[in-house]
Amino acid sequence: MKTVVIGAGIAGLVTAIRLREAGQDVTLVTKGLGGLQLGQGTLDVFGYNPDRVDSPIAEVEKVAAADPGHPYAAIGADAVRTGVEYMAGLVGGLLEGSVDENILLPTAVGAMRPTSYIQSSMANGACTAGKKLLIAGPEQLKDFYPQLIAGNLARTDLPGGGRVEARSASFSIPARGTEADSSGLQYARALDRPEYRRQFAAAIKPLVRDGETVGLPAVLGLNDLNAWRDLQDLIGAPIFEIPLPPPGVPGMRLNQLLTDLAKEKRVKVILGSPVLGGTAEDGRLVSVTVGSTGHDMVVRADHVVLCAGGFESGSLELDSYGVMSETIFDLPLVGTDIPEPTHGQYWGDPQPMFRVGVKVDSAMRVLDAAGQPVYANLHAAGGILAGAVRWTEKNGEGIALGSAIAATDAILGGI
Ligand SMILES: Cc1cc2nc3c(=O)[nH]c(=O)nc-3n(C[C@H](O)[C@H](O)[C@H](O)COP(=O)(O)OP(=O)(O)OC[C@H]3O[C@@H](n4cnc5c(N)ncnc54)[C@H](O)[C@@H]3O)c2cc1C
């Protein structure tokens, strides 16, 4: 059987890898990189609804039962648990956590963010009352402000009561030569090298007081996943990474591991080419059309999994007349009956348009207005599903991974 997966975000990569592991012929077509690198490199299953969520899987079960319009209603809690654990297994020890309990981690503005799975390099950042933190970063790094982070952390009441003690420090070490303004990626590449790690540790070590845990920007190595452990040994105190605003190094690590795995498993990847549409016969898609230089390419398919994301990746569009559309197959969208798809309050409520997307059944097949599959073999997963504001609810990865499992199970089960 041949499946075409559209999109190379977390949903598309995991779908493609899982189908290949089951022996399917898989072609992944993507117009560009997915959103993994824009995230924090963690797996969010449910963070807020609207209050902070302690047990993400319990919240998935609650929402699945109470809100038929939410993606979790079609996906179900079992697929979410399987998907998140499958993903953690794919990246071999990089991620740790549980869907049963959220961990609270410091952010780049010194807030505390609930998430399910974190990278091991972040684990020492879990905040407990009385914990002594030193937040430190290189002066040359953009987008990391130790004083802001430490100040906000020190004045935040912890859920169980009490506060952390936090202070800040800066040190001077350019990522390259004498560069005065370096990005996180430049530091991460430099910290892949043991000799640079020694210099970096030597700059931090004198700043650390007894009993302190050191919070550093999440740039502690890109390809060397043990770079942070080496740095911790060199500094001689527990350390942890704090993710920076996007694009972020922890997300790049996940993206790199999944992309490498897809190649290793021999997923056929067509990169840099958009899917423009498809051809149907007897209610099934039989091929997709891929735009490429000079001529379009037709790729035959027994199944298609649409993992093309939402508005942020161009899979959904809002035109200047307020009309919303799905840009590849012109699929029916739900949630479009809203008077104003967007509002002008940037810091206000979530934009109403972000709940718009496709509706699916439990096999993740895209449904029409009558509740029937549009095509018997067209499944959808990830950000294109209607009914959630993923970055507000903090459930983007849970939805992507749960729907990837539900779609692949359906295909492998012969649906
Ligand atoms: C800035 C930002 C911050 C976020 N923060 C959070 C957060 O804190 N917590 C959270 O839970 N979620 C967050 N999200 C949402 C989360 O990142 C997404 O829910 C998740 O990445 C969706 O994954 P996906 O695989 O469905 O789609 P994406 O990662 O968007 O990937 C879509 C893929 O489809 C490809 N594509 C699109 N159109 C075509 C086409 N015509 N042909 C071929 N390929 C196509 C794209 O190139 C891309 O590779 C954030 C999103 C953004 C943008």
UniProtKB/TrEMBL annotation:
Domain FAD-dependent oxidoreductase 2 FAD-binding: 4-395
Region forming the signal peptide: none
InterPro entries reported in the protein's UniProt record: FAD-dep_OxRdtase_2_FAD-bd, FAD/NAD-bd_sf, G3P_DH_GlpB_su
Family annotation (Pfam families): FAD_binding_2
Lineage of origin: Bacteria, Bacillati, Actinomycetota, Actinomycetes, Actinomycetales
EC numbers for this chain: 1.1.5.3
GO molecular function, one term: glycerol-3-phosphate dehydrogenase (quinone) activity
Source organism of the structure: Flaviflexus equikiangi
Keyword annotations of the record: Flavoprotein, FMN, Oxidoreductase
Name of this protein: Glycerol-3-phosphate dehydrogenase subunit GlpB
Top enzyme class: oxidoreductase
